[in-house]
Here is the input.
Amino acid sequence: MFILRLRPACGAALILGTALPASAQQADILEDFRSEYLQFRREGAVAVRDRPQPLYDPVPYRIDGIEVMPRVSADATYDSNIFATSDAIDDLMLRVRPRMTASALLGSLDVTSAVELDRREYLSHGNQSTTDVAFGLAGRYTISRDTQIYAGTRNGRRTEDRADPDSPLNLRAPVQYDYVTGYLGAAHSFNRLRIAGRIGVEDRDYQDGRDGLGNLVDQDFRSRTLLTSDIAAEYAFSPDTSAFVNVTFNERNYPAQSLLEPSRDSNGYRITTGANFELTKVMRGQVGLGYFRQDFESPAYDTVKGLAARAKLEYFMTPLLTWTLNANRGVEEASTIGTGAYVATSASLQADYEVFRNLILSAGANYEHDDFQDIDRRYDIWGAMLAADYKLGPRYALRMQYDFRDQDAAGTFPGREFARHRLMAGVTMQGM
Here is the structure.
């Protein structure tokens, strides 16, 4: 008889398992909780980007048991196509992101909070400049070694990427929306069996925009509330292999939609089952396959259903080189006229190489196919990335990155086609 000892994946630090260092939690507290895995990542080989670097990792301020990590990032980005259209217009964008994170361990209660400001300033097209804000608060209470409960909230204002499939083409400024999210969950272990559950809510309030003539363009119809519930069960056959089942339910409501338009309200579910494994010390991962279905209230939108998939594989070719493969297939909501959803199939591959302790080189490629429902439209999106991260010391780090995106469209209503190149150089200062 054995007890499987696992720790959560980096994005799931507040879900299951033992406590992680504050820095591991800080990285994801402002990210979408729905992207977190409910499965585990085993202790074993450490990926290049996850490896501790005591000589170069930032050191937080410690005040009466509270760890405070200030950070300021500043960078300049050349964008060859700021509007993401076939008629490319370029510009130089300056970006500043101050952020403050605080964490404390109060007995069995682990609490982390973060606040961030994100200012983007375009030098030649000032009406594209935006300011985003975000605040996050999360906590985990350990009842016993086998039982934890956790909760969190994330709030702020975000700017929609011009390359997003739902981003309108006729607005002179990018669309912004306010969001409020919250989640509550629990996990319990029964020797080889571990069960986790989570409920969440996200509310988005889209701001109206204006076209090139100054006319108001309504975006309220896109405002919506998303309710989700997840449950996962994982059974360990050995210390290196386990099987899991995930079930997710969702309900989407659009309260501000015009009565003259078909209702976009819908509900659905996603079921996946698969394996979580570690093959020797050079490869680990999790692969899940299943089924998804989304039913709409209005008969104007067809039911969307099909194969669901999600996978992550890490290959440690050497202690200094990590390959990471991600894949996903599922349904995404759409606010484009004539359709309520599209099926997105995506895959990405990235290599991270540690040249020196303080220098990491990265290269990656990705592909996504979007198949819209109820209208004849398909997108094929290709991308590539090159990056270098250089740490000058615990407080200062430099980063350079180049990325490319090429989007092809097909169908009777093909939508947008464009190519975009971006080159960024920046500096980050953090810690004491």
